[in-house]
Amino acid sequence: MAPPIPVGLGMGNALFFVVAISAALYLAYRWALPKPIPGVPYDESARNNILGNLPELVTMLRDTGKTRPFFIRHPQRHQSALTQVWMRPLQKPSLILADFRESQDILLRRTREFDRGTWNTDAFNGVVPNHHISMPSADPRFKGNRELVRDLMTPNFLHEVSVPQIYAKTMALVDLWSLKAELGEGRPFNARRDIFDAAIDIINAAAFGLDDDQSTVKNQLDHLLSKPELRPTPNADGSVMFPELPTLPTIVAIEEIGNHLGEQFKSPFPRLSHRFQMWKSPTLAKSVARKDEFLRDEINKAVVRLRKGESGTRSAMDHILQREMNAAEKAGREPVFHSHRIHDELFGYIVAGHDTSSTALAWMVKNIADHPEAQTKLRSALRAAYSDAYAKGEQPSVVELWKTQVPYLDAVLEESLRCNGPIPVTLREALVNTEVLGHKIPKGTKIFMVSEGPGYQSPPIPVLESARSPSSRDKNLYGSWDPSDMHLFNPERWLKTDEKGNVVYDAQSGPIMAFSLGPRGCFGRRLAYLEVRIVLALLVWNFEFHKLSDGLSSRDSYDSITTNPHRCYVSLTKVT
Ligand code: HEM
């Protein structure tokens, strides 16, 4: 028989275990608590919570559908241009930088110390893993991918191939809105879908040279024209609603994938979240398959066309395929048209180019309706610049639109981007141990650079000159905004008089980062400017945008890939 266990020893053991486990748990809790970077302000509540700032972000997302305002308010909360937050449990702190000069310096000059952050690359990785947007700059594939698409943003390519496509698709929107203005007798209607569709027609046409039967706006127009008896339905808020054709399956797929990407930006674990959504949502998986099929079909059609030597280059796709044909011929191999790289670079062009431009245009339309004086001035500037077309009662031609400088047009669109930039936060990650505003930060630290709030639309938070990095001292390439009016929409701030007495547009009048800066800034910036310039010019040339009631002109927004207006209504009168 086994001897009885002495009671005193059993109690002692149990007590020892309880104390040891409690101590271990306490030590684990202390270890898991966020560790701040010395001297950089943070929220005490986040510092004492193993989840850091995550609970606040989750609450904000649940209540408002947004997370970006958190990044913009945090520096204001602490009145510090540099603050720190914890976005995930057990993670090093991330920094928020609300200072244009230091951001500009990091993006433009400190590219050996900072690169595109993994959160951003991870967000795109699920859908377009072989597009350069999903790659750090040191990825061995990055250079080759950029080389493949290099020519798409050259002035020659843009003017010869992309601009005619943009012009044609914008004129379809003008025709659709002319009909809607007439049928609705000038009453407001929701313009968000039309702008979304026009932007997708434009980017699809620039990417694939798609014909009119694939144009959503043209299809809507034909649908309305085919029913002359049709009248819009009035809504209780004074607006009217037009019947809409079901969206084409490819556009539905692009839209669903775009929305899915937008959700990844809000997730603390984008890669995991992508896999989970692909498993959970049969429609998402179907949309991804539909997108692959669409790319295969378009590439196959283009290859047949190009091999026959038909009709030259009419899209970004044609150009990429022609490059592959030439490279294969030079290397004595068969061309590979259906590589992951070509598929993803093409689809990434649409994903990166559509949502951004569509959102920028939606805010522009709202801003010109909200500021009738600026709108009238812009229309006069356009009529003076395209005086022949105005005298003949015609549309300005495609050549006039890209050749003639209209400083006030550039000023209006830049002011809209300053006030309502579609992407108000840019992310970078430290590649080495380094310093920001005098604080030592370890390799791997994420840094969120905000381009809304202090320094952009409200007075900057002061920064000691001695705290700035040596490369940023005395190297501010931009002017500064008058603190008394930087919260206002005022296109004039972008204009100056040159030495010959001409009023000119100055792109460096003051802080703006709508397209980010430096080698990993927006790849499509030139195309985007051409697009918004042509669309805005043709819309203001053709329509007067009336000011709307407070409800219809609300400036509430929601976050997706971009920060979108909840409401984008227009009330139009045809003017020419
Ligand atoms: C008004 C329209 C647009 C805005 C406001 C915009 C803004 C931006 C911003 C803020 C970034 C992030 C840059 C960074 O992390 O530093 C970006 C990246 C990018 N944009 Fe745009 N964009 C616009 C239109 C376009 C268009 C039309 C295209 C192409 C067709 C495009 C292609 C890209 C690509 C490929 C990247 C990633 C570049 C890289 O990873 O190196 N964008 N854009």
Automatic annotation (TrEMBL):
PANTHER family: CYTOCHROME P450 (PTHR24305), CYTOCHROME P450 12A4, MITOCHONDRIAL-RELATED (PTHR24305:SF166). Keywords: Heme, Iron, Membrane, Metal-binding, Monooxygenase, Oxidoreductase, Transmembrane, Transmembrane helix. Belongs to the cytochrome P450 family. This is Cytochrome P450 monooxygenase. The chain crosses the membrane at residues 6-29. GO terms for molecular function: heme binding; iron ion binding; monooxygenase activity; oxidoreductase activity, acting on paired donors, with incorporation or reduction of molecular oxygen. InterPro entries: Cyt_P450, Cyt_P450_CS, Cyt_P450_E_grp-I, Cyt_P450_sf, Cytochrome_P450_monoxygenase. It comes from Xylaria hypoxylon.
